[in-house]
Amino acid sequence: QVQLVPSGPGAAKPRVTLTLTCAVSGDCSGNISSGCCYWNWIRQCPRKGLERMGYIIIVYGGTSYATSLQSRITIMVDSSKNQVSLQLRSLTAADTATYYCAREIATQSKAGS
Predict the structure, then answer these.
(1) pTM for this predicted structure
(2) What is the DSSP letter of 109?
């Protein structure tokens, strides 16, 4: 069973950097560095659908970010703490949202793309 426990300030002021952390337990093999997983950050703005902000593949060290956020977002991993973190810079009112971390199991076709 996988448990994802997000943490952060709850609220942040405009123009500052928001940092959220997701503590992971019960990963594919008990370690966040397992190659089978993508670690995503997703958000839902009020009265809007879900937006996938980006993800990191720890085993390759690769990241992919939504084009609209690319200049402001960083997703990082701390394998020693089994944590995935999101940094979102230069906040505006448009960043008001509920933020989620999520694990995605990589299929062979996706892992090879």
Answers:
(1) 0.78
(2) H
